[in-house]
Specification:
By secondary structure, this protein is of the alpha/beta class. Among the domains are: about 60-275, Acetylglutamate kinase-like (Carbamate kinase); about 375-525, VC0802-like, CATH 3.30.2130. The chain is built from 18 helices and 20 strands. It has helices at about 20-25, 75-85, 100-115, 120-140, 140-170, 175-180, 180-195, 225-240, 265-275, 310-320, 325-335, 365-370, 395-405, 435-445, 445-450, 480-490, 515-525, 540-555; strands at about 10-15, 30-40, 60-65, 90-95, 200-205, 215, 220-225, 245, 250, 260, 280-285, 305-310, 340-345, 350-355, 375-385, 415, 425-430, 455-470, 495-500, 505-510. An 8-stranded mixed sheet has the order 5-8-4-3-11-13-14-12, sandwiched between helices. A 6-stranded antiparallel sheet has the order 16-17-15-18-20-19. The N and C termini lie far apart (about 60 Å).
Length: about 550
């Protein structure tokens, strides 16, 4: 059994001694034994089998991921269990997030405790009550008693940890990750219990026992697949089953310190699980019918895309489309595992399939839309322009520019450079542009004084519009069509960028022009319908004939 290290100050924590009656009633939740015992994840895990079973990897496995909205209420947890049971795959892995809003509640606990706000105690009671009331509605018998025992145990441990944070006035990253990951532990335990109620062989998995990641920055980790596969083999040999409910978002470092997968961690967890199990498919359940050709809040004529290639999904997600985080796609690409985006609230919708592109894939809509699959935008950007005759032919100028940007920790969204090397411009988040401009002014102060660099300009209030499509590559006329649509809409372009892969064309616009530009290009490539009003005054023979013809065409266009 792999034991997880908790922060050193909490190697001994209070263990609750609570009777079953008080658990069910909600009373006695503060009663604990005076003795202290060593806490480990072993105490909250299912019973381990003495037998060893080899993990059968391959396409007998399917992976499902359900976000916090999907398991946000007791009824929704039941609905998720029904979806899992309807899947006729031989073996299933279900990755779940914390219940809706719970992760925010856990972060709020940390914030209150390190601010020395005693309201963290009341807030923790709210977390307890949310999960206790949910369990009372969906579980019964020994399953209910067992879950409530573990829940109270966890709450008491968290209370001791939060008290220490309150005294110290500070929470380390490892403390924070340990606290916020509890929401996933509780939702996985409840969902697995509901699935077992239906007679299905099911175990829940604390992913911290299996997933090993190496933190490479404050907001990014790299999975260690070799170590994770060994951990998974060991876990499965002790708990063989055909349905596994795994916690999303959380993992461990190589030193067994609990950590998280950062932004969109549950999607990333599902993709990693798909790769570890060599699954047939990974299904991401969300609250939309699939991936849209553009943001439907901005473009009313946006359509659901039937298919996307891995590269198209990666490009669209990078440029702000509500698809997946780009890192989610990386683990499944290695094994050609498709990702299906589906709506948990609309099971009749087929969703969007993300897979490796094929020559015979079905196109979405008209021929022009098969070239450009979708459009995405990023707002609240600023364009930084560095120019000067002293930059021409001077090696290392770009390195100096972006070295200064790196030193202030800014994220460069897009880069464009004239072939004359007279200027370099790039887009950064608006909140970071002042630090970038100050750093560049300092770095190039001598060059500016000598006249080698003429200016460092900041152009605020910008947005990026990106057109994405794998079939754009080597297809003449796509750029012309895009720029023609923008010109007809009277949109001025501030900067342009296109990689040699030709998977996307990116333009920088004024922020106030962004939605109008998005509608214009989407209408041009997807032939969006335009409603017009027409009136006929005093129809005679010709007018009546026209009305008859329009009436005959109604069923073709509606």
């Amino acid at each position: 059994m792999t034991h997880l290290s908790t922060p050193a100050a909490f190697s001994v924590l209070q263990r609750p001694q609570i009777c079953r009656k008080s658990l069910l009633s909600g009373k006695g939740r503060h009663d604990t034994a005076n003795g202290l015992v060593k806490a480990s994840v072993t105490e909250i895990l299912p019973q381990v089998s003495d037998e060893t079973t080899q993990l059968p990897r391959g396409d007998t496995w399917s992976v499902h991921k359900f976000g916090g909205t999907c398991v946000g209420t007791p009824q929704r947890i039941k609905n998720v269990a029904d979806i899992v049971l309807m899947d006729n795959s031989e073996r299933k892995v279900v990755v779940v997030s914390a219940m809706s809003k719970v992760t925010d509640m856990m972060y709020d606990l940390i914030e209150k405790a390190q601010s020395r706000n005693e309201a963290y105690v009341t807030a923790l009671e709210g977390v307890l009550e949310k999960h206790r009331s949910t369990a009372l509605e969906i579980l019964d018998g020994d399953e209910l008693a067992g879950f409530l025992l573990r829940l109270h145990h966890d709450i008491n441990n968290l209370k001791a940890m939060l008290r220490a944070i309150y005294i110290a006035g500070h929470a380390t990253e490892s403390f924070t990750d340990f606290v916020v990951g509890h929401g996933e532990l509780w939702s996985a335990q409840m969902l697995s219990a509901v699935i077992r109620k239906n007679g299905t062989d099911c175990n829940w998995m604390d992913a911290r026992e299996v997933l090993i990641v190496n933190p490479i920055s404050s907001n990014q980790v790299d999975p260690d697949f070799q170590k994770s596969e060994k951990r998974l083999d060991k876990w499965f040999s002790q708990r063989p089953c055909k349905t596994i409910v795994a916690t999303g978002f959380i993992a461990s470092t190589p030193e067994n310190i609990p950590t998280t997968l950062k932004r969109d961690g549950s999607d990333f967890s599902a993709a990693i699980m798909g790769a570890l199990f060599r699954a047939r498919q990974v299904t991401i359940w969300t609250d939309v019918d699939g991936v849209f050709s553009a943001d439907p809040r901005k473009v009313s004529d946006a359509v659901i895309l039937k298919t996307l290639s891995y590269q198209e999904a990666w490009e669209m997600s990078y440029f702000g489309a509500n698809v997946l985080h780009p890192r989610t796609i990386i683990p499944v690409m290695q094994y050609d595992i498709p990702i299906l985006i589906r709506n948990v609230f609309n099971l009749s919708a087929p969703g969007t399939l993300i897979c490796r592109s094929t020559d015979d894939e079905n196109d979405d809509g008209p021929s022009s839309s098969s070239l450009v699959k979708g459009f995405a935008t990023i707002d609240n950007l600023a364009l930084v322009n560095v120019e000067g005759t002293g930059m021409v032919g001077v090696p290392g100028t770009a390195s100096t520019i972006f070295g200064a940007v790196k030193d202030v920790g800014a994220n460069v969204i897009m880069i464009s450079q004239a072939s004359s090397e007279h200027s370099v411009c790039f887009a950064v988040p608006e909140k970071e542009v002042k630090a970038v401009a100050d750093a560049l002014a300092s770095r190039f102060s001598q060059a500016i004084a000598a006249g080698r660099i003429s200016k460092v300009d900041v152009i605020p209030n910008c947005s990026i519009l990106a057109a994405v499509g794998q079939k754009m590559a080597s297809t003449p006329g796509v750029s012309a069509t895009l720029f023609n649509a923008l010109a007809k809409a009277n949109i001025n372009i501030r900067a342009i960028a296109q990689g040699c892969s030709e998977y996307n064309i990116t333009v920088v616009l004024k922020r106030e022009d962004c939605i109008r530009a998005l509608k214009a290009v989407h209408s041009r490539f997807y032939l969006s319908r335009t409603a017009i009003a027409m009136g006929i005054i005093g129809p005679g023979l010709i007018g009546a004939t026209l009305l008859d013809q329009l009436r005959d065409q109604v069923h073709y266009v509606c």
